[in-house]
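Sequence design from tokenized structure. All designs in this work follow the same two-part layout: the structure record, then the generated sequence. An example of the structure record is given first.
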């Protein structure tokens, strides 16, 4: 039995909305603080909205050049493919989050070309369509939980 996983991510509004939650919280805080003290604090809305849109495009629509569009796992470890065509061998950081319908992976490139990368993967949850195919999404979660990068059998 092969342990090769090729998980292609598709654009997903639910993943994009999850990525914008921190920026929405910052924007709400800016509005609340501006109402309480100084209207100058509304200037925080512009960068919060801009970063929220960037996060939606990167993690939801997969449109930025460094967006992760697929993950491949084989006997050599984990490799991620970016929108710009680069393939980068990576390791999964311990601060990643796994649940049945959501995986947030913090990936560290094996070669120190850049800093760590993050990807959001969602499964189907009720009416919300995930950005990963269910069989490969399940296999990747199991592989990450057990800690095996390859199945020798």
């Amino acid at each position: 039995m092969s342990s090769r996983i090729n998980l292609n991510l598709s654009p997903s509004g639910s993943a994009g909305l999850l990525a914008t939650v921190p920026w929405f919280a910052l924007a709400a805080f800016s509005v609340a603080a501006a109402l309480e003290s100084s209207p100058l604090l509304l200037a925080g809305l512009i960068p919060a909205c801009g970063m929220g849109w960037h996060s939606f495009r990167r993690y939801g629509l997969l449109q930025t050049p460094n967006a992760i569009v697929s993950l491949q796992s084989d006997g050599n470890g984990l490799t991620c493919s970016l929108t710009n065509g680069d393939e980068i061998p990576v390791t999964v950081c311990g601060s990643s989050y796994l649940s049945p319908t959501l995986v947030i992976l913090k990936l560290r490139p094996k070669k120190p070309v850049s800093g760590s990368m993050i990807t959001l993967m969602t499964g189907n949850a009720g009416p919300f369509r995930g950005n990963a195919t269910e069989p490969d999404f399940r296999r990747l979660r199991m592989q990450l939980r057990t800690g095996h990068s390859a199945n020798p059998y």
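Residues 14-60 form one domain. We note this feature because it recurs in several other targets discussed in the main text.
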